[in-house]
Design a protein that fits this description.
The protein has about 375 residues and is an alpha+beta fold. The chain is built from 9 helices and 5 strands, in the order αααααααααβββββ. Strands 4-3-2-1-5 form a 5-stranded antiparallel β-sheet. About 15% of the residues have low confidence.
Amino acid sequence: MGGWCHESLMAISHAWIVRPEARSCFFSAPQEFTEEKFGQAEKTELDAHFENLLARADSTKNWTEKILRQTEVLLQPNPSARVEEFLYEKLDRKVPSRVTNGELLAQYMADAASELGPTTPYGKTLIKVAEAEKQLGAAERDFIHTASISFLTPLRNFLEGDWKTISKERRLLQNRRLDLDACKARLKKAKAAEAKATLWNDEVDKAEQELRVAQTEFDRQAEVTRLLLEGISSTHVNHLRCLHEFVKSQTTYYAQCYRHMLDLQKQLGRFPGTFVGTTEPASPPLSSTSPTTAAATMPVVPSVASLAPPGEASLCLEEVAPPASGTRKARVLYDYEAADSSELALLADELITVYSLPGMDPDWLIGERGNKKGKVPVTYLELLS
């Protein structure tokens, strides 16, 4: 919008020139403004369309400021960091790279694992989580960079460029209107004096000439301002495109976070002995899960516990037989890659037979598909009645 605003403004400005004789009544503008405030002078009103353009422009500016500020808070919650970035931008200097909270947490976890023992279950888990947090931090950095360029920068450009031009021309229009109203008041007084004495003929002619010039200047400035205000529509189109880019970058960011955490949970689930058994019942009843709830819930890979209670030898899957009662059908919600030969790989939407055995971790079931069987995570299944 900024380019055409400037060109239109220059073209119209060169076509109109303020004539010297009009300047004699311009000194009355402040007085005219004061009298209008006290209801002692008439005011030239703008047409309804022009008033609507003004209101639309003000609303656009106000909401753009609010959206810009809140997006800045979303991308950088630290107010001190925001102030620092603002100063760097004003000085036209590159903002230094800053470590994200996720990357800092990853560093702390890696250092803790190194000191507490990287070969212990806790140390190994800290290292794995640190790697995931580092990936999350890198994804966050990319998201902030992309959102700043595709969304924040266009909003700032509008407020610091186009809107300043609009505000300047609106102030000029206000001054031209005050000049026009002052000339109207002067002509009115001159005609009133003329009715009493013929000596005021020259004064009336002068006032009429000043009024014509003031009206011309007002009309010219109104046209300039109108063109700028109508350009707000193109601003909305531009901001709409930027908003789509922002949503796209945010979607990419959260999708990356989801993949990183899902991979992390799978890796943690393969660590033997990472979690101890619970005191929950050995064979909890299989309860049906609402399809809507199951589909909307992000799959959580539970801990992989032995099929046998702690202290006993693991059961051989080939020797496992389904119970006489208690088997159920289940639909697979998500693809699952088996961690080892004791697990059964799953494909989304396939149907399998599942059942539980005494001593099993309640977050796992035995799944069978044809002549294949293995442990499967409950959160990847929709149990059918």
